[in-house]
Amino acid sequence: MIAGLPLWAFLLACAVTLGAGFVKGAIGFAMPLIMIAVLPSFMPAQTALAALLLPVLVTNAHQSVRHGFAPALASGRKFWRIITATIVGILITAPFVVVLPQQVMFLLLGIAVLFFAGLQLSGWTPDIPPGMRAPVEFGAGLIGGLYGGISGIWGPPSIVYLMAAKVEKTEMVRVMSVIFTMGAVVLTLSHLRTGVLNAQTAVLSALMLIPAGIGMGLGYRAHDAMDPVRFKRWTLILLSLSAVNLLRRGLMG
């Protein structure tokens, strides 16, 4: 047993986290999506949520300041609405994770991942009129935060908004990372209070920092050498398959 898991489960969790770190380094997001889509297939859903907390927090903090602290602060000021709304949403729903039945959590996670992956695979990108950006930004952040408090995933609405707002690629990755970092801080503190992150699961989450960091370093290197469009497409296909598996578990037990 390592950090409360059998050796085979721990090693498999390391492999999943390494892959998720690689994807995040290569395309800028999807670490919690991958981890929460796969880890619950061989460990309790709350343990899976705890396992991703520290890797998501640390990798997003690193990615947000990769080009310096000044650009990160500028992005935070520019998109303060979506960051604030995300934090509020997480604070509202985080306490409910300890009372949510596991099958319901599987269904919620599966629906969210499948919806996001399908939206991206379809190539559909909404267009937001300039006058509507402020309320839509608040709405996207709040919806993401409400979902993130119980699932550990608050990125999809923010990513859809940034794509619709036609934010430049480099700034988009940086803004996503700032949003994810702030959300991760709030979520981690919230789950210290709920008990999801406890003495045993905190060790597991800390150990996941190693494969996450290795994967992210490899992902950074791969970013310039590979076709990001094709890589992102295959990643979304794999996420869709993982989401279908979660839906199956939620419906059939």
UniProtKB/TrEMBL annotation:
InterPro entries: TM_pro_TauE-like, TSUP
One Gene Ontology CC term in the entry: plasma membrane
Membrane topology: Multi-pass membrane protein
Membrane-crossing segments per the record: 29-58, 79-98, 104-124, 136-155, 175-192, 204-222
Keywords tagged on the record: Cell membrane, Membrane, Transmembrane, Transmembrane helix, Transport
Domain of life: Bacteria
Principal cellular location given in the protein's record: membrane
Record localization: Cell membrane
Pfam families documented for this protein: TauE (PF01925)
Family membership noted in the UniProt record: Belongs to the 4-toluene sulfonate uptake permease (TSUP) (TC 2.A.102) family.
Protein's recorded name: Probable membrane transporter protein
Source organism of the structure: Pararhodobacter marinus
